[in-house]
Amino acid sequence: MHAFPLSRRAVLAGAAATAAVAGACLPGGRAEAAEPVAARAYRWRNVVIGGTGFVTGVLFHPSARGLAYARTDIGGAYRWDDRTGRWIPLLDHIGWDDWNLLGVEAMAVDPAHPDRLYLALGTYAQPWAGNGAVLRSEDRGATWRRTDLAVKLGANEDGRGTGERLLVDPRDSDVLWLGTRHDGLLRSADRGATWAPVRGFPAAPSATGQGVTLLVAAGRAVYAGWGDADGGSARLFRTLDGTTWEAVPGQPSGTAARVPIRAAYDRHTRELYVTYADAPGPNGQSDGSVHRLRTGDGTWREVTPVKPGGTGDGGAADTFGYGGVAVDARRPGTVVVSTNNRWAAVDTLYRSTDGGRSWRSLKDSAVLDVSETPYLKWGGEEPKFGWWIQALALDPYDSAHLVHGTGATLYGTRDLKHWAPWIRGLEEASVRQLISPPTGQAHLISGLGDIGVMYHDRLTASPSRGMATNPVFGTATGLAQAAARPSHVVRTGWGDHGNGAHSHDGGRTWAPFASQPVPAEDAPGPIAVNADGTVLLWSFVHGDGTGYAAHRSADDGATWSEVPTFPEGAVPVADPVDPARFYAYDTGTGTLFASTDGGRAFTARAGGLPSGDHQFKLVAAPGRSGDLWLSAKENGLYRSTDGGAGFTRVESCRTSHTLGFGKAAGGAAYPAIYQVGSTGTSTAVYRSDDGARTWVRINDDAHQWGWTGETITGDPRVYGRVYLATNGRGIQYGEPV
Which of 246, 297, 589, 592 could form a disulfide with 606 if both were Cys (CB 3.0 to 4.6 A apart)? Predict the structure, then answer.
């Protein structure tokens, strides 16, 4: 669901790349730099949107009233604070180098020790990603101890919404089990400090399959689900003594029971409920079932509420799998299951009070209130009860307190009828673009992955207008504002009727471009608007990295013409003062291109700059013509004051990943500069009030949010306020204390 760059490291250009660069790096590719001034005291908060991402698991503590945890695919884990009615983020301390650990594969609590919490972390299991880790806490996630694993985990890969792969053994709180995707089952005998493979586990790891999909305690037994398609007919294994594992006899087989998704144990009836699908999900499921195992005598019974098949709304095939399952700790035989990937008839929850003999759909009587997060109306539609429902949890102290996750939120109910987002404090947006306008009601406009563009009329409440409409975007690919005419804003992305739009009231309302270039249909990319709003320049990049010729419009998107001299796939940047000037940085050759005729033609200027992938950031300083700054990642920061004819290495920076500007400090002659980079050894967030001669760190070790290299901008109206894009923890904004 969420995108993330496959590599954060540039391909270094080498020592020869110095042709038009003054102040080049010292040998080794890095300039000498002093350690930064100690961090200035900043208060960091989320710009409120509310959710916006896939909550992959929710876990109520079985023996501590009001205590719950949530995990996400890319945005860390949270603890529910019942006193304040908010989710508390637990992994914001994870730093730049450990970005892969912000995806939570699984979590576990100890029923006998309510303060203990365990998390298995690792966003990707791909060769370019680092290994996973297990964090263990004795104080509900306030502090952690960490064990690095020798295997990879995949919290943002297929199967991320399956059951918890981490479990405290029901016989011994010192023993933990961890199921992996490609390396079988691991065991720890010292509360997660060390781990070893379970040699007797009967399922062989597969390089392409799902491996262990769930771990669940049923009395003193432990059950493990196995999701590999080539693993034979056995999909569920168990150990009765903590040593010997065996396939569970009599288990269901066939397509509808190919992958065990989740399981829940009713301790009153000693029955285990298991949901199945033909694929791990959340996408790609078309068949599924629900089965009940009587653990005392080994009797299986199918209790599927509705079998996939038939037709849904509009005559489409009603295909789906089953996802979440939860049992009522207070009422024997009461169980809730969810459908998943059901698009024709729409996903629902089914509830049974008689052990699965009969079921009732909770969606049919549901009343949804999304007033606190209006974006869930999806541009004016009725809010959706659910999709990608794999996270499902029932409060063990309240039979009517039921929650389920979707691809964008958590819904909760206290009466099984009225539902509202249970999401305060949980922010998971993957942020792509940020603009802080110099005038108008909104101090921020954002472009996001999956949920388009937001106009933030308040920073402390979800945008009242919801998602930008006309058109509604999925993922935004471009967002720009005319510097001398800030009422004119343009945006691009994957839209429901057109992939580009313009606004003439500062981003409050929108209209689609009257036409769009052919490449925009399948490769909408970044866009720029010149200083007075009379020219648009739209670049196009396919998902595989293929670039196309940029197009220009001088009539607000009514007609477009190709610009063959623009470097394909580059990000266009408008001069903030001169309407005739545009710039673009060719990352493949390390060359700055410029136009002085309103974007009709581009010519090469400075060359020999760092080159590599597409993560370089070219930014124009506000209020100054030709004042350009280039964040070149590990190669540092470069500046041009002559419109790109030449660049000088900024020696105060060792690395620079993204850069932005805000209101100048009192008495300062230059705007405040904000940067994600390094002036010494650590990657952090910095501010400079003297034109990048000196820097102060403004975040701290408790506020790092993993990978933050996409974009940053200061507020042009409030000195010291900065807005920071994260990949999974939404928009962070900081202000001096």
Answer: 592
Angle at 631 between CA 14 and CA 634, to 5 degrees: 45
Residue with tokens 């992938």: 613
User: What's residue 230's pLDDT?
Assistant: 54
Sequence length of the chain is: 737
Q: Which positions are catalytic?
A: 73, 450
User: Are 103 and 181 within 8 A, CB to CB?
Assistant: no
Strand partners, 495: 473
Q: Residues 254-290, buried b or exposed e (16+ Cβ, 10 A)?
A: eebbbbbbbbbbbeebebbbbbbbbbbbbeebbbbbb
Residues in Cβ contact with 546 at an 8 Å cutoff, skipping those fewer than 6 apart:
523, 569
Label the pairing between strands 367-368 and 418-421. parallel
Whether 401 and 383 have beta carbons less than 8 Å apart is answered as no
SS3 state of residue 17:
coil
pLDDT of residue 38: 58
Bridge partners of residue 448, in order along the sequence:
431, 452
What single letter denotes the amino acid at residue 570? A
3-state secondary structure of 265: strand
Q: How far is CA 287 from CA 233, 300, 318, 422, 521, in A?
A: 17, 19, 10, 29, 33
Q: How far does Cα 546 stand from its chain's mean position?
A: 24
Which residue, 59, 187, 195, is CA-closest to 116?
Answer: 59
- Cα angle for residues 153, 159, 160 (degrees, 5° grid): 60
What domains sit in the chain, N to C, each tagged with a CATH number?
21-41+429-736 (2.130.10.10), 50-421 (2.130.10.10)
What's the pLDDT at 229? Answer: 58
How far is Cα 251 from Cα 301, in angstroms, rounded to an integer? 9
Q: Please choose, from the candidates 90, 248, 241, 272, the residue with its C-alpha nearest in 3D space to the C-alpha of residue 175.
A: 241
Give me the pLDDT at residue 547, please: 81
Q: Which region, left, alpha or beta, applies to residue 202 given φ > 0 means left and ψ of -120 to 50 means alpha?
A: alpha
Phi, psi of 10 (to 5 degrees): -75, 160
Residues whose CB falls within 8 Å of the CB of residue 199, separated by 6 or more in sequence, listed in order: none
Strand-pair category, 21-22 with 647-649: parallel
Q: What's residue 648's pLDDT?
A: 97
Alpha helices in 82-211 (DSSP H): none
Q: How is 428-469 classified by DSSP, letter by letter?
A: --BEEEEE--SSSS-SEEEEETTTEEEEES-SSS--TT-B-T
Q: Partners of 230 in the beta sheet?
A: none
| pLDDT (0 to 100) of residue 680 | 83
DSSP 40-108: PPEEEEEPP--B-S-EEEEEE-TTSTT-EEEEESSS-EEEEETTTTEEEES-TT--GGGGGGGSEEEEE
Residue with tokens 């922010």: 427
* Nearest residue to 308 via CA among 279, 273, 335, 271: 279
Q: What's CA 640's distance to the chain center, in Å?
A: 34
**What pLDDT, on the 0 to 100 scale, is given for residue 338?**
98
**Cβ atoms within 10 A of the Cβ of 558, count?**
10
Q: In 3-state terms, what secondary structure has residue 262?
A: strand
User: Euclidean distance between the first and final Cα of the chain, in Å?
Assistant: 36
Q: Are 362 and 319 in contact (CB under 8 A)?
A: no
| Of residues 599, 497, 514, 524, the one with CA closest to residue 557 | 514
Name residue, tokens 């029901």: 170
Report the distance separating Cα 371 and Cα 403, nearest Å: 18
Q: Per-10-residue mean pLDDT for the chain, 737 residues long?
A: 32 27 29 49 97 97 98 98 97 97 98 98 96 98 98 97 98 98 96 96 79 97 87 82 95 94 98 97 96 97 95 82 98 98 95 98 97 94 93 98 96 98 97 97 97 97 97 97 98 96 98 97 96 98 83 98 96 98 96 98 97 88 98 95 98 96 97 95 95 97 97 98 98 97
Residues linked to residue 81 through DSSP beta bridges, in sequence order? 86
